[in-house]
Amino acid sequence: MLKYFLYAAVPAVLALATFVWLIVALVRQCKSWRIAVGVFGVEILLLAIGYFVYFTPVEYPRTYLDEPAPETGSLAEIAREKSFYIGAAVNMADNPAYRKLVPSEYNSITPENYTKWRQLLANEAIGNYDFSKADAIVDYAVENGVRVRGHTLIWGKFSGRTYPKELDNLIAEAADPPAELRRIMQEHIQTVMTHFKGRITVWDVVNEPLSMDGVYLDENIFLNTLGRSYIAESFRMAREADPSAQLFINEQFGNYAGELVELFFDLLEWLLEENVPIDGVGIQAHNIFKTHNLDEFRQFVQRVADLGLLVEVTEFDARIRLFGEEPDPYQAQGDYMAEYARICIENPACIGFTVWGLSDASTWFDWVTPVNRMLPNDPLLFNVNLRPKPAYTKIRESLRNRP
Ligand code: XIL
Predict the structure, then answer these.
(1) CB neighbours of 228 closer than 8 A, spacing ≥ 6?
(2) So what's the pLDDT on residue 189?
(3) Could you tell me the residue range of the domain that residue 15 belongs to?
(4) Do 74 and 49 share a domain, yes or no?
């Protein structure tokens, strides 16, 4: 992500600098204005080409539509027989796809946004909860025997988005910042988990503890105030709030091997040594700018399993444009998605595979910059008409073969 912005931002800044040079040269009547015009012209041309290449929507053949639609309605049924969860993120209770695909295809759902701290608050005021949107999503699932993953209690990455902005001020002004932060975290975790007790049975307690920019923990308000023990403490608070809920740490990985992964395993080992009540690792699995190395993914899953922890793929999506060079992009995407799912389904420690949206009609990629301009995204299991895409049949097969 960061790299992408650098690629986009650096040429733009250079062009701007050249433009300033041009203006200054003209005002001062320097001869260098001619060179500036030339350089500026080339830069604008390159930017235009880049813009054209990235931002012109493309269309790929949908060969899968030429084949008879697979018999549907059974994915969740097979998943249930195999004690596995096939899940989807649900953005709103009144998304028509929700009633059509749940409970027949998905036996697990995750509220996409409405169980996040900030979104649970009326007027973003700490302690002022409005559960109505979340309840509407959760109740439909529970009434239909569908499991709900809660997402997420403590997430420090972006102030004002992943947690209420007010927290920054409260902690900055507190006489005893660690004590104040603990108090607010405890109250939040206690209130939310108590509210959903018995309905939300698994929680992403801590989301994205790793940094996106280097080999260290994300330097957010929680880490800066409490050190890495904020992670351990969050889990302890969560266990106390609802002892029956499964507790996960959830993270996005660009690579499943390397220094950052080692740091993550150091963290897990430390949590286990400290007897922190953690049940599993959620792997987000967003494929935004590149696909992942699946051999490394398989080893990663096994490594978590070897620690005695559960695994779930919690937020899978893979943009179709990552497969644009393949002869049949939708088929290639389906093969990749099915292979990703198979690695999880084959491992007894991996108990769920959740895609980040009910269908291609509701993917966050269509809202988030810059991929909202790099269309189509179509990163999910069902297309906009709720017809299953090529991964569907293969995932069903893998489920049947689950040990
Ligand atoms: C995303 C949602 O899909 C968007 O609708 C929202 O605007 C931002 O958050 N990692 C996570 C998810 O853990 O909560 C994020 O969901 C995607 C990245």
Answers:
(1) 217, 267, 270
(2) 98
(3) 2-55
(4) no
Smallest CA separation from ligand 1 atom 13, residue: 207
Candidate from 90, 113, 365, 371 with most ligand 1 atoms within 8 A of CB, to mutate: 113
- pTM, to two decimals: 0.92
Same domain, 287 and 192: yes
CATH number for the domain spanning 115: value is: 3.20.20.80
Residue nearest to atom 5 of ligand 1 (CA): 364
Answer for the pair 356, 40: CB distance below 8 angstroms, yes or no.
no
Which stretches in the chain have pLDDT values below 50? none
- Same domain flag for 20 and 153: no
| Lookup result for tokens 């790929």 | 60
Residue 255 sits in the same domain as residue 343: yes
- The answer to whether the Cα torsion of 330, 335, 340, 342 is positive or negative is positive
- Cα(49) to ligand 1 centroid in Å equals 30
Distance of CA 364 from the midpoint of ligand 1 (Å): 7
Give residue-wise pLDDT tens across range 135-145. 999 999 999 99
